[in-house]
Amino acid sequence: MIILNEIKKIVTMPALSGFLILLTVLNCVFAFNGNFGNEIEYINAVNRIAGDKFGPDYISALEAMPVPDENEHSIESYYYEQLLAVAKAFPGGRTAKIFSEEFDTFSSGKDVQNMPFSKLITAAIGKKYEKAKTVSAQKNASGETNAVAFGAETGRVFGYATGTLGVLMLAECALVASLVILFAFSYENLNATDMIVYSTKAGRRRFALCKAAAALAVSTAVFVFIFAVGYGIFFIQNDFSSVWNAPISAYYNAVKVGMFSMPAVAWNSMTFGGYFVFSTLLAYLVMIIFLLFSCALGLVMKNSFAAFGVVAFASLFNAAMIIFPPASPFVMLLVYMFPAGIIAFMPAWFQYGATLTLIPYQETVLTLFWLLIMLAAFLAALKYFSKKDIK
Q1: CA end-to-end span of the chain, whole Å?
Q2: CA angle 200, 203, 207 (to 5 degrees)
Q3: Positive or negative torsion for Cα 77, 82, 83, 84
Q4: Which of 210, 226, 295, 353 has the fewest CB atoms within 10 Å, i.e. the most exposed one?
Q5: Which has the closest alpha carbon to 216: 106, 102, 145, 292?
Q6: What is the pTM of this model?
Q7: Per-residue model confidence as pLDDT tens digits over 102-114
Q8: How large is the average pLDDT for residues 243-248?
């Protein structure tokens, strides 16, 4: 009963409805802006004839097709030339050479040698690259990296879905979760009823847990709504039916994180469909990190505006370090280890991540790590809140 009442308080907050409307409009604009339908439709049509893997047979089938008239079908002509160029340039799979070259360049750099913990970092990256080369060789042998997917447009389409739309929606969910939980804990203070509601120390813990549960329920509903609308519009416009079961490690799929572009090499065999399922689940856990952090602050700090300021400052500072990369490679690696960095790295989740990650599945490991840290902070704050005097 208490939880339902707390949910009612949150959902009837006028600011929440207005904010969700603004976010929905923003997401619709970004989702509609990511319309690659014409390109994808043509590439899918070509792949149905030529096949879905690069190689000699694909090139022969492509060359046997009628060449689109450049004057009448500019889009078809352009993408036909792109597909043929890609097919001829990369008839085989990805080689492991890129990993050894990249690691050699990184480990021999003066910045790396002189930065703090250089030996530890270089050793960690070395182990990661050795595993990446092994994984890449296995993908080459299985033919996984020969997947055509969306041809030369794969990286652009996949990158927009994850690096633009996905990051935007996850950041919005984290923001809403923080606002919801802080409103829940400041409600009594704003209405000058805290002396009544929290009059007994025995009941505070129960009220706090009910408020947290209510905020979690509302945040979960908002998360489902935001991702359903954003990705719903995106996938209605862009036909992914031909690539749901294709590996994201397709040769011409590269992801961009900040100023860095890297080949999309999944640690395991991961399809486009599998990526969107698992990344959405992980995104939900990342949102919970922000909810728990805000919850802990809301229990300790009486002023909810100040508490939100702490969350906002920490997130914006982390984001600023990503948008404007520091000269120090050590700091550059460090900023991607914090929650806002995990969000920014979304396009490369479950992948080797070039030199921006130290260990395999770094985003998953760090998400679980921060979940435990924030859960511990919440429990400590709950204990403090249940014992302090209300003034």
Answers
A1: 27
A2: 130
A3: positive
A4: 210
A5: 292
A6: 0.89
A7: 656 555 545 455 5
A8: 91
135's enclosing H/E stretch is helix 118-142
pLDDT in tens, 57-98: 888 888 888 877 766 557 788 888 888 887 777 655 454 455
* pLDDT score of 167: 95
Which residue, 281, 284, 290, is CA-closest to 181? 290
CA atoms within 13 A on the CB side of 244: 7
Q: How far apart are CA 251 and CA 152, in angstroms?
A: 9
User: Pick from 235, 240, 228: which is nearest to 283 by CA?
Assistant: 228
Tokens of 26: 């923003």
Residue 193 has pLDDT above 60, yes or no: no
C-alpha distances (whole Å) from 364 to each of 42, 231, 286, 341, 346 are 36, 22, 10, 12, 11
Q: Phi/psi at 147 (nearest 5 deg)? A: -60, 135
Of residues 267, 214, 274, the one with CA closest to residue 240: 274
Q: State the Cα–Cα distance between residues 77 and 363, nearest whole angstrom.
A: 40
Question: Which pLDDT does position 96 carry in this prediction?
Answer: 45
Kindly list the domain boundaries of the chain, sorted by start residue.
2-36+151-387
Top pLDDT among 89 and 190 is at 89
Q: How far apart are CA 143 and CA 136, in angstroms?
A: 10
Weakest mean pLDDT among 28-37, 53-62, 202-211, 221-230: 202-211
Burial class (CB in 10 A: 0-12, 13-18, 19+), 285: middle
Q: How many Cα atoms sit within 13 Å of 135 on the Cβ side?
A: 20
Beta strands in the chain (DSSP E): 254-257, 260-263
Record the tokens describing residue 58, joined without a space: 């694909």
Burial class (CB in 10 A: 0-12, 13-18, 19+), 302: middle
